[in-house]
Amino acid sequence: MDKEFNYHTFFNVDWESWINYNLGLSENWKTIFAIALWHIWRARNFTVFQKAMPHPVTMFNRYMVDSVANINTFQGNIKAQASLRDKARWERPRGQTIKVNIDGSWRNDGRVGAGAIVRGSDGGWFFGKSWKTKARNPAEAELLAIRGGMQMVIDAGLKDAIIETDAQTLKSTLQDVGKQGTHELSAILKDVQVLLNKGCDFEFNYADREANNAAHYLAKLAVEMDDYMKLYDEPSTSVKDVYEVDRVQSAI
């Protein structure tokens, strides 16, 4: 926050005085102010013309990306770029490896959905999927989503994949999948073990929820949609903003 910033003035003056006040502060604040206004205006237009309201977290993330990039470009502020790197964010796979972000969504009313998004080393969209499933608890929903994501990759003929989930306990379970004979989800784990021998080299990673938002939105969509399954050759409206933020942030 700008050292000269005055909350009372910011929230209590008329429109013209408010604009003049903000433009009279430091160069750093004027950059932040202009970028924030542009994103608010962009979100307003998206809501009016596309009949869809961007998620507030998505708006903030996109603002942060633009703000850091502009400050770094115009003011040479390397620290701003470093602070963005420290935040939990999606990371690109390396080389020819693809990354599959997975999420399961479980509701108390019995509705369960899964989402998966496949991306390459440039952060680009390969394909995505939302589908309904049945599960007794959140852990089972997550594991079914992982199994479904693995099958997607195998069906696509891909040979080297990172499966990324925000279910941390399942990551260790999957790493020792051959030793889970008495696990309550052993039937699904046996399916996973079979898929591990289908010609694709799988690696399992844990990601913070913030780095798994794209898959989270696809899983949420699966719960709410009427169709049993949807495939996406390009980002759907519900996930497009998050996908764009992931792609920009992962390039920094």
How are the SSEs placed, and which strands pair?
Layout: H1 7-12, H2 15-23, H3 27-50, H4 56-75, H5 78-86, E1 98-106, E2 112-119, E3 125-132, H6 138-155, E4 160-165, H7 168-175, H8 186-195, E5 201-206, H9 213-224, E6 229-232, H10 237-250
Parallel strand pairs: 1-4, 4-5
Antiparallel strand pairs: 1-2, 2-3, 3-6
How does this model look, in words?
- The chain is α/β, with parallel strands linked by helices and 252 residues long.
- It folds into 2 domains: 7-86, no CATH class; 98-250, Nucleotidyltransferase, domain 5.
- The protein is 52% helix and 16% strand.
- It is built from 10 helices and 6 strands.
- A 6-stranded mixed β-sheet has the order 5-4-1-2-3-6.
- A hairpin with a 5-residue loop joins strand 1 and strand 2 (112-119).
- Helix 4 (56-75) runs antiparallel to helix 5 (78-86) and helix 9 (213-224) runs antiparallel to helix 10 (237-250).
- The longest helix is centred in the N-terminal third of the chain and has 24 residues, at 27-50.
- The radius of gyration is 21 Å and the shape is elongated.
- The two termini are 23 Å apart.
- The relative contact order is 0.15.
- Mean pLDDT is 85; it is low at 80-86.
Any guess at the CATH architecture of the largest domain? 2-Layer Sandwich
Total DSSP E strands: 6
What's the number of structural domains? 2
Sheet with most strands:
6 strands, mixed
Low-confidence stretches: 80-86
CATH C-level category of the largest domain: Alpha Beta
CATH superfamily of the largest domain: Ribonuclease H-like superfamily/Ribonuclease H
Which series of helices and strands comes N to C? HHHHHEEEHEHHEHEH
Strand content: 15-25%
CATH topology group of the largest domain: Nucleotidyltransferase, domain 5
What would you report as the Rg, rounded to the nearest angstrom?
Answer: 21 Å
Strand order of the largest sheet: 5-4-1-2-3-6
What is the helix content? 40-55%
Number of helices: 10
- Dominant shape: elongated
